[in-house]
Amino acid sequence: MRPFKPEYILEVLPQIFPYTAVTLGIMAGTVLFGGLLGFLLACAKIRGGRVGNGVANVYIYITRCVPSIVMLFIVYYGLPEFLRGIGIQTDSRNHGLFVIITFSILFGAVMAEVFRSAYESIDKGQREAGLCVGLSGFQTFRRIVLPQCTVVILPNFTNALVNLMKEGSLAYTIGLMDLMGRGQWIIGMNNGSYSLEVYLALFLVYWVLTILIEYVFRQIERRLSRGKKIVV
Amino acid sequence: MTLNLQFMKETLASTAAGIPTTLGLTCVALLISLPAGFFMALGKLGNRKTAKRLISFYVSFVRGTPIVLQILFVYSLLPSLLNHIVKNVLGMSWNVFNINPIFYAFFVFSFNTAAVLSETFRSALLTVSHGQMEAALSVGLSRTQAYVRIIIPQALVAALPNLCNATVNLLKSTSLAYMMTVKDITAIAKLNAARGYNYIEAYLVIFIIYILLCTTVQLLFYATESVLSGYKKRIAV
Amino acid sequence: MLQVKNVHKSFGSNEILKGVSLEVKKGDIVVILGPSGSGKTTLLRCIDFLERADQGSILFDGIETDMHSASKANIARLRKKMGFVFQNYNLFANRTAFGNVMEGLAIARKIPKAEAEARAREVLDQVGLSDRRDYYPSQLSGGQQQRVGIARAIAPRPDVILFDEPTSALDPELVGEVLNVMKSLARSGSTMVVVTHEMQFARDVATKVIFMDGGVVVEEGTPKEVFSHPKEARTVQFLRNIMPGEFDYSI
Question: pLDDT tens for residues A191-201?
Answer without folding.
Answer: 878 899 999 99
